[in-house]
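Standup notes
- DV: blocked on the single-chain target, sequence here:
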Amino acid sequence: MKAIGVAPVCLSCHGGTEKISDSVQARIDKLYPHDKATGFKEGDLRGAVSIKQPHDK
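- DV (later): unblocked, structure below
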């Protein structure tokens, strides 16, 4: 498993209100009306990736 941390580029859509432009916020509101994936800061844990692969017997 590998952690997905918030990088500076992520903040334009997932940062606090001071980081998200009005035009981006309007688009997020239109496409994702129930979105709660904002308010993150650089370095926050955003998720994780896990890969499963069957072993040959």
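- Follow-up: Strands lie at 2-5, 45-49.
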